[in-house]
Amino acid sequence: MRALPHVITALALLGAAVIAAVVLSRPSSAPRSPPPLAVAAPALTVREPYVREVPPGATVTAAFLTLANPGTSARAVVAATSPAAQVVELHAHLDEGGVMRMRRVARLEVPAGGTTVLAPGGYHLMLIDLVRPLAAGEVVPIELVLDDGARVRLDAPVRAAAAAGAHAQVGRHR
């Protein structure tokens, strides 16, 4: 009977081990973070955005800015929206037979680690069918839609035409 206390202790330890194993194998009620499988590419950053002020009665204007891509993969802007206009299109000035013309483009590419400049005479955002006239000093919210569905929001101040630089077609877009 001297062995009886040792058997009881061994059974007690065995029971405790079984209970611990069952409790530890149950899913925790605390939320767990999934292990990171992939790191999302960082969104584009926007520098020096502005919208060009237009003369009274004009129904279109353009927005300009610099897009910077701090990531290691190329990104692209595929669409844009703004409450200031019914339509926002991605545009470029293209040389067609020696004549520069504005044309809609499907996407604005931004290389990995690089920048893409939207400036008068080049790429720009066309704000078409303005909901009201825009005056210098106002701020126009714009949202860019990226190729992966991510969105980048920005506020672009309206600049007077002389301060914004030349952009001959603004106000007469076709």
Alpha-beta classification: mainly beta
Distance between the termini: 104 Å
CATH class of the domain at 45-164: Mainly Beta
Give the % helix. Answer: 10-25%
Largest sheet: 10 strands, mixed
Task: Give helix and strand order, one letter per element, not per position.
Answer: HEEEEEEEEEEH
Mean pLDDT: 80
What's the alpha carbon Rg, rounded to whole Å?
Answer: 30 Å
Provide a count of the helices: 2
Can you tell me the CATH topology of the domain at 45-164?
Immunoglobulin-like
- Spatial shape: globular
CATH architecture of the domain at 45-164: Sandwich
CATH superfamily membership of the domain at 45-164: PCu(A)C copper chaperone
How many runs of DSSP E, i.e. beta strands?
A: 10
Beta-strand content: 35-45%
Oligomeric description of these chains? single chain
Describe the structure.
The chain has 174 residues and is mainly β. The chain has a domain at 45-164: Immunoglobulin-like (Sandwich), CATH 2.60.40. Helices cover 15% and strands 42% of the residues. It contains 2 helices and 10 strands, in the order H-E-E-E-E-E-E-E-E-E-E-H. It has helices spanning 4-25, 161-164; strands spanning 45-52, 60-68, 75-81, 85-96, 99-104, 108-110, 115-118, 124-130, 139-146, 151-159. Strands 1, 2, 3, 4, 5, 6, 7, 8, 9 and 10 form a 10-stranded mixed sheet that branches. It starts with a helix and ends in a 10-residue tail after the last helix.
Features:
globular; mainly beta; 15% helix; single chain; 174 residues; Immunoglobulin-like; 2 helices
